[in-house]
Amino acid sequence: MIDSSTIFLVAGDTLEPVEAELRDGIEEQQLVDWQTQWQPALTEILRELARHGVPMADWPQSWHWDWRQKRAGVAGLLAFPGFSIMADDVTQGLAQVDLTRSARSAEHQGKPLAYVDYLEVAPWNRSDRGNVPRFKGVGTALLTAIAALSVDEGFKGRLGLHSLPQADDFYRRTGLIDLGPDAAYQGLRYFEMTEDRARAFLEEE
Amino acid sequence: MKKTMTLNLTDAEMRVLDDLSTRKDLSKTAVLRQALRLYQAVEVRVEKGDKLVFENENTREKAELMLL
Questions:
Q1: Contact predicate A83/A67, CB 8 Å
Q2: Do A99 and B37 touch (CB under 8 A)?
Q3: In this structure, is residue B29 part of a structural domain?
Q4: Interface confidence (ipTM) of the complex
């Protein structure tokens, strides 16, 4: 049984609050949305970028993610919970967490944390390339849910993740500590949220 | 929805639980929940035919953990 709670996003055009649903899980409905709504929207964005000669390095860096495959790989496993956000009856964001990892920062090294395996917002919610997102705050809401999960699991809000370069600034702004590029992980930068920062982040949100 | 159960542990097991709880900065319940997650994750991989191998970062020496 999936738990859900009401959260509020912000409409990108009017900046009015919009009621949304945070779900502690990713189910078939979300995977169907990914396939039937996200994929066509993403294909359109990629076509547009290609038409304008934008180099592939500047394309949305999660364009190749296959959520159906990701969830199938961890189906039934307690260590890999998922989260989804619904608004207007459509999936607006997805995240998958790995609860088997440990902190790397000197202060908390070896202590368990919630590692953000994947976090993605629907293509129409991306704010890059000067686009006005349909809904703002989806990524932050997912990160908040993961920090809250970390607290619930006794990990005191600690979370970690490898960031795609396009998301580095978002995670810095959100208060995660940049521990630098990880040579063992395609050179992606590794970020952590410490207990103190998680507490402040959750109070703020 | 969480359910409650009573756990009977030997002194030695309780010492290990206490030690892990301290070292990992987790409550005893959180340690056991974490252990369950890890056990399940390992079990599923092993059932698929994967091996559980530990590698020493410095020496690159590998040791396979046998799960019976």
A1: no
A2: yes
A3: yes
A4: 0.86
